[in-house]
Amino acid sequence: MFSLVRSCVIALTAVAVAIPAIGAAQDLTSPDAFSAVAVAGVSFASGETSWTKGGLGKFQTGAGAGVIDGSAIVVWRPSLSSRLALQVSADAQSLAQHAVGVDEAYLVLRPDPLSAVRISGRAGLFFPPVSLEHDGSEWSLERTLTPSAIDTWIAEEVKVAGTEVTLRTTLAGHSTGITLAAFQGDDTSGALLYFRGWTFDDLRANLGGDFRLPPLPGLFVGKQAQDTQSIDDVDGRWGAYGRIDYALSQTLSVNLFAYDNNGSRTKVVDGQYAWGTRFVQAAARWTPADSVEVLAQAMTGETEMGKPLNGQFPADIGFAAGYVLVTDTLPNGSASLRLEQFSIADHTFKTLYNSAESGWAATAAWTQPLSRRTEVVLEGVFERSDRPDRIRFGMSPLQTSVQGRTAIRAAF
């Protein structure tokens, strides 16, 4: 509990220091200061029991079950001055264990548009700039209902409490940006990947929330908690990340991202271990035609946890994933197709517990506008994965499953 309280204090410090400015600001309760995105629909999936129900299924539902689900994100975004603003958001998720919570809360420094080097920043609780798919209002999805394996994991296990600074300028006619950040929290990032593997769902971590893990192997029973608090602070150490953006042309931009939570690996509080998680990513956004957009992300990293035994961490994996997403905007809607691969390499104690994994997935989605702010989305996802740990549950390591979803998505 102490670590969670400490994370709360760190995350909301930016809001606290802005209170004097809030008192002098105008129209804090204006309708323009509020916005929201809501999604409600039905999903059905074949295959294994979903990980949300304690299984190893890759989707938010499974075992031939259908569910009615919904989510909403509400944001308060008041301006404090021409350069300063706040952003505080809350989310509600019907399939999450912690159904309602604080999503993000941070102070924003806007760039000076007239400066040759534009400096911007934020301080508080927020998602690092990793996902290309979460570029809709309120860090929401626009092209599909379900993000890629990479961006599913980012939403579930990569949220930080810290300070981020971005510098943008033009070099030789090309827009260029550099982002650096220092943060605390996010110490348990890696637990979901290790015990559960890659998944495909639209759940996201919130302050004080947790996610269920599958039944733990004997090596970890009584040590690791059955639920992981994915943005908790355990060891009090500072992590860091950096990003470089470069626009090769008006239609093609690329970025490189590196992340290290600097987890202690051996610190544990109430069954929550500090994992040492690092990853790098290359991403690109390309618009080859006015109506066509291509997104691509490729990530590789590693994570370890626990006191070394005979020179080996009890948990030690390498992970990698990548996808290409193509969206074609047509006169009466938009069609998206995503193909991806994902894998996990287990580096230790595989005879006791093998968390290795390999697989691929394909997603197709159709978005049909109903009005200026409302649309219906139809989506199908196929995945095929090989995970040796399934043997522990009496299943074949190789499993195939399909998920269908339909939902109404509305912005307010």
Report on this model:
The protein is built from four helices and 20 strands. The strands form three sheets. Strands 1-2-3-4-5-6-7-10-11-14-15-16-17-18-19-20 form a 16-stranded antiparallel β-barrel. The model has no long low-confidence stretch (mean pLDDT 91). The protein has one domain (2-26, 33-411): Porin (Beta Barrel). Helix content is 9%, strand content 49%.
Structure, briefly:
By secondary structure, the chain is mainly β. The chain is 9% helix and 49% strand.
- The computed structural class is mainly beta
Q: Report the CATH C-level class.
A: Mainly Beta
Helix content: under 10%
Largest sheet: 16 strands, antiparallel, barrel
What is the end-to-end distance?
35 Å
Overall number of structural domains: 1
Number of strands: 20
Strand order of the largest sheet: 1-2-3-4-5-6-7-10-11-14-15-16-17-18-19-20
Name of the CATH architecture: Beta Barrel
Can you tell me the CATH topology? Porin
SSE sequence, one letter per element: HHEEEEEHEEHEEEEEEEEEEEEE
* Proportion of residues in β-strands: over 45%
Ranges where pLDDT stays below 50 over 5 or more residues in a row are none
The Rg value, from CA coordinates, equals 21 Å
Shape: globular
Q: How confident overall, as mean pLDDT?
A: 91
By DSSP (H or I, 4+ residues per run), the number of helices equals 4
CATH superfamily: Porin
